[in-house]
TrEMBL record:
It comes from the Bacteria. This is Multidrug export protein MepA. It holds the Pfam family MatE. The chain crosses the membrane at residues 20-40, 60-82, 102-120, 140-161, 168-192, 198-219, 240-262, 282-305, 326-350, 362-382, 394-413, 419-438. It is a multi-pass membrane protein. One of its GO terms (cellular component) is plasma membrane. The keyword Transport applies. It comes from Paenibacillus contaminans.
């Protein structure tokens, strides 16, 4: 108990900047490495089987996004409640939340996977598969549908380990997962010639190994995570789903984004456009994970401080996070502007038409990162403080409402340029609405000054 109390007191006594960095850096590195898993699949498939196979895997990637979305829904919703209980020194209730969340994610994932497996061909067509890409889509998707629950359990468990004051182990787990994914991909694709399905098996096998690493958290003396007797609770399910909904919608939006862009590219640029977008999409998945990692890094702090009623530390944390998001976004935009051709080259040798379209797309699309990080940070803040409606608006608007509306209209005016600019424009509009919302609340609600 002494070790547990010491860990909690450090959250309250160490400087906000020190605690912020302690959680942020491992979270960014861990999420970056998780994104590497999908990018590695694309790089190996592109080099081994060519651009059509790469496009096929890209069409199937939303299945991974759906799994990840469900794990964030339950994981982030449960984690907010868990850390809030810890902040209020309610350890028994925190452990009950943890047990309930792990049981819920396991059961729900199996139910979804079984349903999707029965309609996998229809799902592939909906996601944008055509006659050329369908065989590769089915290979990759079938494996993910059968064993993707391993990915969801690992991610949910990782979120709770981070919220239990061990962000370094959560990071190490994802580092190990990424390293194993690279090795297994090479063996299955280049040595054993498993085909595109080998890349999916590498993803699943690596996640299983990463989960085993997380289990060592239970050996720590200061670990508060414990499995307790499971007690089914509709109230806990409702609270978990309500608080975690913005995270679920944010990740589900990635599937909408990928499917929407694939469909738009098929219409306006054919398979060449889908191949070009697939390269950008892999890079985009890395950036999304970095921003999700930023949110995951500050969520335990915001939830704990809210439970402990330490509002001044909560305000300082969100201000640091916004400044960090702006800095990262600017740096990434400059990289895309100056190194677009090099980024495209990472995925193999393609036709000049595909290379040129992909490089142009990167230079235009990377404008979105100037605003995207701030949107993720503010979504996490609203989520952690139970302003769920505003958090949900950010996620729904970014990659659903505004993006779809722009994809349906702007390409008619400026062609494929309108497709590349759909996300940058939607991110900018959302930032403006968030700023307006905060300014309005600042005049009427003192608490809103935390982010003004």
């Amino acid at each position: 108990m002494l070790a547990e109390n010491k860990k909690l007191s450090a959250m309250e006594s160490d400087s906000v900047g020190k605690v912020f960095v302690r959680y942020l850096i491992p979270s960014l590195i861990g999420m970056f490495m998780m994104s590497i898993n999908v990018v590695v699949d694309g790089i190996f498939v592109g080099h081994r089987y060519g651009e059509v196979a790469l496009a096929g895997v890209n069409v199937a990637v939303p299945v991974f996004s759906i799994y990840f979305a469900v794990s964030l829904w339950i994981g982030m919703g449960g984690a907010v409640l868990y850390s809030r209980h810890l902040g209020a020194k309610q350890v028994k209730e925190a452990r009950s939340v943890f047990t309930h969340s792990l049981a819920l994610i396991f059961g729900l994932t199996l139910l979804l996977a079984g349903t999707a497996y029965m309609f996998r061909e229809q799902l592939a067509l909906f996601l944008g598969a055509n006659d050329e890409t369908m065989p590769y889509v089915m290979e990759f998707m079938t494996v993910l549908l059968g064993f993707g629950f391993i990915v969801t359990v690992q991610n949910t468990f990782s979120i709770f380990v981070r919220n239990d004051g061990n962000p370094n182990l959560a990071m190490i787990s994802l580092l190990v997962t990424a390293a194993c994914n690279i090795v297994i991909n090479y063996v299955l694709l280049f040595v054993l010639d498993f085909g595109v399905s080998g890349s999916a098996w590498a993803l699943i096998g690596a996640a299983a190994i990463g989960t085993c690493v997380l289990l060592t958290h239970f050996l720590r003396k200061d670990s508060m995570l414990r499995f307790v007797k499971f007690r089914f609770s509709w109230e806990l399910i409702r609270n978990t789903f309500t608080i975690g909904l913005p995270s679920f919608v944010a990740e589900l939006g990635i599937s909408v984004f990928t499917a929407g862009y694939n469909m738009a590219m098929v219409r306006w640029a054919g398979t060449v456009g889908v191949s070009a977008f697939s390269m950008l999409n892999y890079v985009h998945s890395v950036m999304l994970m970095l921003f999700i990692g930023m949110g995951a890094g500050i969520q335990p702090l915001l939830s704990y401080y809210r439970g402990a009623k330490l509002r001044s530390r909560e305000r300082e944390t969100i201000r640091l996070a916004v400044k960090t998001a702006i800095g990262i976004g600017l740096g990434v935009y400059l990289v895309g502007l100056l190194a677009a051709d090099g980024i495209v080259s990472m995925f193999g040798s393609f036709s000049a038409e595909v290379r040129q379209m992909a490089a142009t797309g990167i230079r235009l699309f990377f404008l979105a990162y100037l605003f995207m990080g701030v949107n993720f940070v503010m979504m996490t803040y609203f989520q952690s403080t139970e302003q769920v409606k505003m958090a949900t608006w950010i996620t729904v608007a970014r990659e659903m409402l505004l993006m779809v509306a722009i994809l349906l209209t702007l390409p008619h005016l400026i062609g494929t340029t309108g497709i590349w600019l759909a996300i940058p424009i939607s991110e900018l509009v959302v930032v403006v609405t968030v700023y307006a919302y905060i300014r309005r609340r600042t005049r009427s609600v003192p608490e809103a000054r935390a982010v003004s």
